[in-house]
From TrEMBL:
It comes from Candidatus Synechococcus calcipolaris G9. InterPro entries: AbrB-like, SpoVT-AbrB_dom. Residues 78-123 form the SpoVT-AbrB domain. Pfam families: AbrB-like. It comes from the Bacteria. The keyword DNA-binding applies. The keyword DNA-binding applies. Keywords: DNA-binding. This is AbrB family transcriptional regulator.
């Protein structure tokens, strides 16, 4: 079964379409602007996060205080990760770039009930451990 392509609006076109659709719900606006996909079962899944981010971007609103994501290469951080089939958690380069981390930086891991806390080890701590 061939998938039907739909246009995803961005920028000024997105803002204008959202204004036209003022009478619709958020989900209906997102779908009308192309922010949905079809699941294998044939149901539609509305991508509200992508829609909201695209609308904020189109309006020139930057919530994180950094430069526009259009100026960066690569993928942007979604702040969500999934446990891989081998049991690993992969933290991508989008996060390490935001934290200005370099290869070889080390962290202490603390586990909570449903969270992981990373504490970066400073060079001084590493020197103290190796001097002992």
């Amino acid at each position: 079964m061939a998938r039907k392509r739909h246009e995803v609006l961005t920028g000024r076109a997105l803002v204008e379409k959202v204004k036209e659709l003022d009478h619709l719900t958020k989900e209906e606006k997102a779908k009308a602007c192309g922010y949905y996909s079809m699941t294998k079962g044939g149901t539609e899944r509305v991508s509200m996060m992508k829609f909201s981010n695209a609308l904020l971007d189109a309006l020139g609103m930057n919530l994180d205080g950094r430069g526009s994501s259009r100026n960066r290469g690569g993928r942007s951080a979604s702040y969500r990760i999934t446990v891989q089939a081998n049991g690993n958690l992969l933290i991508g380069s989008a996060y390490t770039k935001q934290m200005n981390l370099e290869p070889g930086d080390e962290f202490e891991i603390s586990l909570g009930r449903k969270h992981i806390h990373l504490k970066q080890l400073s060079n001084e701590e590493e020197e103290d451990v190796s001097a002992a």
